[in-house]
Amino acid sequence: MNARPYPLHTALSLAASGVPVLPLRRGKVPFGNCTACADTACGGRPNMKVPGPCRCPGPCHGWAAATTDPAVIVSPAWAAAWGQAVCVAYHPGGAGLTVVDLDHADAIAWARTTLPTTQVVPSTRGEHWIYRGTMASRNAVRPGVDIKSAMSYARWLGTGTGTTAALPDAVRALAVKEPSPARRAPQTLSGLLRGGRGDCPHLTPVFLERGVAMAVQRITEASSAVHATVYRTFLAVLSRHGRCGCLTDAHVNRLFAAAQTKGETLRHCTDAWTNALTTLGL
């Protein structure tokens, strides 16, 4: 334990501030299950997506082992792990946080033009954007972008710069899986435009035009997972512009045209739009 005091010191400091921590071994991954917990014998599920009733005192359950209890962190059962640890990880969801893990320059450029500014921490290859609030975790929500919050862990890389902002709908939308197509009656395009139930927050048409243009660009530039990208983009547009009645047939036509250019059918576009409306309660 004395061989590597820095990870342990960092862990105790974070735990004291209410951030659940765990050690990471070589490869920057959690410690593997101990003999008693191997093959989920303790009752957990693979990769600890759902922790079991295990009472193992060691840090061998990935994100589920994260703790703020200093007595556990310095316990003999954790001592061997700290002796081999290369860095400290934390459970963002347990700290009430969400990390948008941006893996390269293109992902960072996307975030800077799409997401509200927040606390930014440099990482090995990119940046972590940290928001206040929790959500479901999901990897590869778009090229080079992972969401780490509930039931996940992130490396502790320091405090970075900026002030932590509230988790925006645009980030929540990234992790939403498209539901099965809803049964629907034939609709005109105008029938897909709901909303208009609140005051318009857009002081100029430029704000709406920029948002639609960015959404079209996001669909057009999708190199994989086009089906999911179209749905998430529709969801993001509606989360920002769907409640005030600003969207017109022309705007929706542009979004549908971009999706169809990428190979989507009109029926899928209609289903994705309807499902997004339903998800947001519009």
Task: Give the SSE map.
Elements: H1 5-16, E1 21-25, E2 29-30, H2 70-73, H3 76-84, E3 87-90, E4 97-102, H4 105-114, E5 119-122, E6 127-132, E7 138-142, E8 145-148, E9 154-155, E10 165-166, H5 169-174, H6 205-220, H7 226-241, H8 249-261, H9 266-280
Parallel strand pairs: 6-10
Antiparallel strand pairs: 1-2, 1-3, 3-9, 4-6, 4-8, 5-6, 7-8
Structure, described:
With 282 residues, the protein is of the alpha+beta class. It folds into three domains: 5-88, no CATH class; 93-167, no CATH class; 189-280, no CATH class. 36% of the residues lie in helices and 14% in strands. The chain has helices at 5-16, 70-73, 76-84, 105-114, 169-174, 205-220, 226-241, 249-261, 266-280; strands at 21-25, 29-30, 87-90, 97-102, 119-122, 127-132, 138-142, 145-148, 154-155, 165-166. The strands form two sheets. Strands 4, 5, 6, 7, 8 and 10 form a six-stranded mixed β-sheet that branches. Strands 2-1-3-9 form a four-stranded antiparallel β-sheet. A hairpin with a 4-residue loop joins strand 5 (119-122) and strand 6 (127-132). It is elongated, with a radius of gyration of 22 Å. The model is unreliable at 1-5 (pLDDT under 50).
